[in-house]
Inverse folding.
């Protein structure tokens, strides 16, 4: 099927663009736009890949949302970095008798305050819970391409005396078949 250039969008296609920009789930956007659920995934793929005017409308919708909300990818990444590089030591101080207590909130930097997920007072004292640092680091690693499928990554390390999985499997199969090594 040839790509359609500069074709007008139907009402249903415009609805698809609007719905797609909400959650970036193409199949669900197609269903909400009125396409049959059975072929929604294929229809969504065709709309995004074979209709340049629809792909362009999606880009414009994303840009309009970014302008409207003042939320950019850079801003989101900076916020994730605040969490990823937080340090509990910047939130605490040592008291005169050697006890550890939280610093006054007004003395915290913006980055340190952003890392706090929960601050509550209990019978035992104050409880500080930070956002998930590991998840934030993983998000940054994904963004930088450090995590995920990589064809140029070296093979995993294994102990010197450990055999490759293929050889272990070959030996097990031979043993099961009653063959000698």
């Amino acid at each position: 099927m040839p790509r359609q250039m500069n074709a007008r969008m139907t009402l249903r296609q415009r609805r698809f663009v609007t719905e797609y920009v909400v959650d970036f789930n193409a199949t669900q956007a197609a269903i909400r736009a009125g396409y049959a659920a059975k072929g929604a995934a294929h229809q969504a793929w065709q709309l995004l890949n074979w209709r340049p005017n629809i792909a362009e409308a999606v880009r414009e919708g994303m840009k309009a949302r970014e302008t409207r909300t003042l939320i950019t990818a850079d801003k989101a990444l900076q916020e994730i970095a605040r969490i990823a590089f937080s340090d509990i030591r910047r939130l605490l101080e040592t008291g005169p008798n050697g006890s550890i207590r939280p610093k006054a909130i007004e003395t915290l930097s913006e980055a340190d305050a952003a890392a706090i997920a929960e601050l509550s007072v209990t019978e035992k004292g104050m409880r500080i819970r930070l956002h998930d640092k590991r998840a934030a680091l993983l998000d940054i690693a994904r963004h930088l391409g450090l995590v995920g499928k990589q064809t140029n990554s070296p093979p995993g390390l294994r102990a010197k005396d450990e055999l490759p999985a293929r050889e272990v499997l070959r030996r097990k199969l031979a043993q099961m078949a009653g063959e000698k090594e």
Q: What stands out?
A: The mean pLDDT is 84. The two ends are 57 Å apart (CA to CA).
